[in-house]
Description:
This protein is an alpha+beta fold.
Amino acid sequence: MLFGVKDIALLEHGCKALEVDSYKSLMILGIPEDCNHEEFEEIIRVPLKPLGKFEVAGKAFLEEERSEAAIIRLMEDVNYAVIPREIKGKGGVWRVVYMPRKQDIEFLTKLNLFLQSEGRTVEDVARVLRQELCPTVTGSRELPARKCCVPGPGEKPGAGATARLDGVPPLDPEEKNSKAGEGKRGKRKQKKNRRRHHASDKKL
Length: 204
């Protein structure tokens, strides 16, 4: 997940004030003022359970956000794969901010500097990525069914009937003539065989 410069700076400032390691801490944003401490701990208990033991290091009110932010100190090594990006809390969705891996700091610093020079933010990048990776599907994209009408015994194909099945190529003129010749020769052989059979019956 991408965080803006303000988010990272706010996390570092809060951790420094509370004297906790920013790389082993989380910051939760968007907590309403009327959410008391017991209620807050109950809401975060299940989402943060995969991270092991933790404690609420401190909370502060953010004037700009008009909501509270909480610093969570993790007791165990950080497993980035199980950190929740958001928590469904009182009053809406609470954002979870954490320090990126140390090897990513230099890259993120360069990225933020580039975005600032372009007049963009990390949130703009995240929005574009969501649109590109998860496009909205407006309707069904199923392929139309292909018509294939096969006449039954004694029936003639209709005017719009398809003369071939899918995957079977049509015969070219030479193959058609060859097939027609084979059919005629087959009929002559059948007639000759019937005549011979009748002649043998008469002799008996």
